[in-house]
Design a protein that fits this description.
8 helices, 10 strands, two-stranded antiparallel sheet, about 20% strand, alpha/beta, about 240 residues, about 35% helix
């Protein structure tokens, strides 16, 4: 049920989190299911569930656009099939991990560039991002974690979003979730700097400071669905709010 004007660009909705495992992918899929139930034409352009049951459950019933397989160094990688989503032209596309770098041979280098193409075509996009992948937090994240990040989204991309939601989670809850569900992006030897409780708290403060510095003010929290006790806490934010 398209509400944008004819020829208008799509609207961008970003779920921002301080660390992997906070629940931003769950929040994105839950929003997609809510929009679909309200009558919008919603597809999953790409989602990384990491075989987590709660993500598979919340995504149940949503149409999934098959990934585009790209060969690189003898291995096939599944990337967002932007052309297929454009051809399908839904009201809303769910696209996980905005900062992802596409496999060499892709039409565009970065997933946020693919998302820009969808927005230009008038498709609304709901996406996810961790604070360490904002270009403006690069130095601070390295100081906190001791790790250099290689994938970034320009701050201007997020600042131009129609809506930004901060998916909040206390360190203890994230560590419990990771222990229950297994590895997620950033976990393991290459991501050890993120999963120390003190560093996680520092990244949370960094995310809130970035939002505050860019005048993204918090609005009332959205209640978690009763049927999903593990659902993340989402603080709704609006660009330009006082």
């Amino acid at each position: 049920m398209r509400t944008n004007g004819a020829g208008a660009p799509g609207r961008l909705h970003v779920y921002l989190a301080a660390v992997p495992g906070a629940g931003k992918t769950y929040a994105m899929l839950a929003e997609g299911s809510r929009l679909a139930a309200a009558g919008s034409d919603v597809v999953v352009g790409l989602v990384e569930t990491h075989d987590r049951r709660e993500l598979d459950e919340v995504a149940a019933g949503l149409e999934v656009v098959p990934r585009r397989l790209i060969g690189y160094r003898g291995t096939s990688f599944g990337e967002l099939d932007t052309d297929a989503v454009l051809a399908r032209h839904p009201d809303v596309a769910l696209v996980d991990e905005l900062a992802h770098s596409n496999v060499p041979g892709s039409r565009r280098d970065k997933r946020w560039q693919d998302v820009a193409a969808l927005l230009d075509a008038g498709i609304d996009v709901v996406t996810t991002l961790n604070v360490q992948h904002l270009a403006g937090t690069r130095d601070a994240v390295e100081q906190i974690t001791g790790e250099q990040q290689r994938e970034f989204v320009p701050d201007a991309v997020v600042l131009a979003a129609d809506r930004v939601d901060f998916v909040d989670a206390q360190p203890g809850l994230v560590l419990e979730r990771l222990g229950r569900t297994g590895p997620v992006q950033g976990q393991g030897p290459a991501g050890r700097g993120f999963f120390d409780p003190g560093r996680m708290s520092a990244l949370r403060r960094l995310a809130l400071a970035w939002l505050s510095d860019h005048s993204l003010g918090p609005a009332p929290r959205q209640p978690a669905p009763e049927a999903a006790p593990a659902a993340p806490v989402v603080v709704a934010l609006a660009p330009g709010a006082p």
